[in-house]
Specification:
alpha/beta, Rossmann fold, 8-stranded mixed β-sheet
Length: 395
């Protein structure tokens, strides 16, 4: 993706160095435009080093007399971050007095603004009106700032959103093939408590589910991540709900799923839970202890039976007779797809950064991803299920 990043003179400008690094490492081509004020906060050479590309700071360069038009036409997306109240006001009212604002005026494609300023400046009716003009009249995407402690000493709304969120919003597919769609993704292992300090769980890291949530978001979908016991980081830009037990997971799906188009069930749900949970720590007193287990509700099967017509994608981890067992699970759960993970001497996907999955549709068609990163595997699944072959059960 080709990105023009406009950087203005706010205290949060330093965060954009991390954003540029992340976008560049993800394979995007970035050209940075800095206002004169921004160049006083951060030396342009830092952006040049991280972007591996030109950094423009001058209003007029004789070698590129129409740079504002060239860049406006070249980019897949034009983002301004951090966007000060002054620059927001200029863009909203068509004032073009530097390269950043002239490029904004010439730009007709996707445009995003990330406001960042003092809470009183942000809440000022003039700023709010200018943001409304950008959003409602001029077609800009406005990403509201976070609330919290501000560099000026105040506390409130006005803090620039996280670097992770800025990079994620900018790098969303400009065609947004899944725009308007809403999916739930479950991730990680469930916890079934034995007593206040012990529980039954598994080795799931949550990586595959989290990468699936990211892949759906990247294609324009609204995503809810429901996660249990994980070691991977939860993306700050995706709505999330933390759960513990299988029963809590089922309850969350029952409450939230009616508003969504489907679910990717990547969570590793415990099949059994202790029949009784001790309210006190169980003390050692014998050489042996008997733990009675009771079957948990079948979360995926129950959710699918109660939400006919929605998309259900299940995940199966198998060690023996993998294909046959995955096919049985697909049929027994009454779902559209099953994603088979194989655990064997050659590869253990639990906690790994790579995976090889087999996608099986309810019509029996199947396809292999090959050994790729979990990020690539998640993007492959989303593409195969929802974009390239949107018909249910067709792989």
């Amino acid at each position: 993706m080709k990105i023009v990043l406009g950087v203005t003179g706010g205290v949060a400008v330093y965060k954009m160095l991390g954003v540029v690094r992340q976008l560049q490492s993800d394979g995007h081509e970035i050209v940075v435009i800095m206002t004169p004020a921004a160049a006083k906060f951060v030396n342009p050479i830092l952006f040049k080093t991280l972007s591996h590309n030109t950094v423009l700071t001058e209003d007029f360069d004789i070698s590129r007399p129409i740079a504002h038009v060239e860049l406006a036409d070249w980019a897949d997306v034009y983002a301004v971050a951090p966007a000060t109240a002054n620059t927001i006001a200029k863009i909203a009212h068509g004032i073009a007095d530097n390269l950043l604002t002239t490029t904004a005026l010439a730009r007709t494609g996707r445009r995003i603004v990330f406001p960042s300023m003092n809470v009183h400046m942000y809440e000022n009716p003039a700023t709010q009106e200018n943001l409304c003009i950008l959003s409602e009249k001029l077609g800009w995407e406005v990403v509201e700032p976070d609330s919290g402690s501000l560099a000026c000493g105040y506390s409130g709304k006005g803090r620039l959103v996280s670097e992770e969120r800025i990079a994620a919003v900018i790098s969303r597919d400009p065609d947004a093939p899944l725009k308007g769609k809403k999916y739930i993704v479950t991730a990680g292992g469930t916890i079934e408590k034995i007593d206040p300090v012990r529980y039954i769980s598994n080795f799931s890291s949550g990586k595959m589910g989290i990468e699936t949530a990211k892949a759906l978001y990247k294609k324009g979908a609204d995503v809810l991540l429901v996660y249990g016991n994980i070691t991977a980081s939860v993306p700050s830009y995706i709505e999330s709900v933390k759960i513990e037990s299988a029963a809590e997971l089922l309850d969350t799906l029952r409450r939230r799923l009616p508003l969504f188009d489907g679910v990717f069930m990547a969570a590793a749900v415990a099949d059994y839970a202790p029949s009784k949970q001790s309210q006190s720590k169980i003390k050692r007193h014998d050489d042996k202890i008997t733990l009675e287990l009771t079957a948990n509700p079948d979360v995926l099967k129950t959710a699918a039976s109660e939400n006919k017509g929605k998309l259900f994608v299940g995940f199966a981890l198998e060690t023996d007779d993998a294909e046959a067992n995955a096919a049985k699970k697909l049929s027994a759960k009454g779902i559209d797809y099953i994603v088979l993970n194989r655990l064997g001497p050659e590869h253990n996907p639990l906690g790994a950064d790579e995976n090889s999955v087999r996608l099986i549709g309810k019509n029996g068609a199947a396809e292999e991803s090959g050994l790729i990163s979990k990020k690539e595997a998640a993007e492959w699944l989303v593409r195969r299920i929802l974009i390239e072959n949107p018909a249910r059960g067709a792989v």
